[in-house]
Design goal:
The complex is a heterodimer of chains A (about 110) and B (about 120). With about 110 residues, chain A is mainly beta. Chain A has no helices and eleven strands. In chain A, β6 and β7 form a beta hairpin. The radius of gyration of chain A is 13 Å and the shape is globular. The N and C termini of chain A lie far apart (about 40 Å). Chain B contains no helices and eleven strands. Chain B starts with a strand and ends with a strand. Classes of the chains: A mainly beta (about 110), B mainly beta (about 120). The interface between A and B is medium-sized, with 26 and 27 residues.
Chain lengths: ~110, ~120
């Protein structure tokens, strides 16, 4: 089955700096890559997603890039703010079943 | 805004006891998922329903876990008997499940945190 690896497990940045989280996946058939943000004690919430026919997608301060050849995708957060502090999960799925395989998560801390 | 509802939010039980979790997906969502999230890890799929039918339960420990969605709306996940290693957050998610490009965005509930003593 699909295997998703996520790095780093923890990331601390100064407010205003950029943060990058990277994920690799094992199955070249994967075609949907969402990113979820989970605040402490809260539900995971989708923040951005990308399909395999697109190389990059942006939404305000958040962007995701996908390299299908290398089988990796990354989350970029610019101008970080304290409210960006949370655990971020990447995920991948194959086909239309949307059975997501999640990475292990990255605890992002934005220091004021 | 419509949300996925789950109960109970917290459950403490002793090993060998039975526990049950309930999930009410967003109205109109055909696909329902149960995920288990161990502390410090990403969610892992336990079972997926399309309407009232099981699509995938390959990762569900069927000797002690069972899940049902009898009328294709709300769902129950049961563990009997509970073991120490079952301590985790049990997350329910739903999606529209009828799109040609896939089931669409997954919306998660707040989860049910289980502690087995």
């Amino acid at each position: 089955g699909e295997n998703v690896e996520q790095h780093p497990s923890t990331l601390s940045v100064q407010e205003g700096d950029s943060a990058v989280i990277k994920c690799t996946y094992s199955d070249s058939a994967s075609n949907y890559f969402p990113w979820y943000k989970q605040e402490l004690g809260k539900r995971p919430q989708l923040i951005i997603d990308i399909r395999s026919n697109v190389g990059e997608k942006k939404d305000q301060r958040i962007a995701v890039t996908l390299n299908k050849t290398a089988k990796h995708f990354s989350l970029h957060i610019t101008e970080t703010q304290p409210e960006d502090s949370a655990v971020y999960f990447c995920a991948a799925s194959i086909g239309t079943a949307r059975q997501l395989t999640f990475g292990s998560g990255t605890q992002l801390t934005v220091l004021p | 805004e419509a949300e996925v509802a789950q109960s109970p939010r917290y459950k403490i039980t002793e090993k060998s006891q039975a526990v049950a979790f309930w999930c009410d997906p967003i109205s109109g969502h055909a696909t329902l998922y149960w995920y288990r999230q161990i502390l410090g890890q990403g969610p892992e799929l336990l079972v997926q329903f399309q309407d009232e039918s099981v699509v995938d339960d390959s990762q569900l420990p069927k000797d002690r876990f069972s899940a049902e969605r009898l009328k294709g709306v709300d769902s129950t996940l049961k563990i009997q008997p509970a073991e120490l290693g079952d301590s985790a957050m049990y997350l329910c998610a739903s999606s529209l499940g009828r799109g040609l490009l896939g089931n669409g965005e997954l919306f998660f509930g707040e989860g049910s945190r289980l502690t087995v003593l």
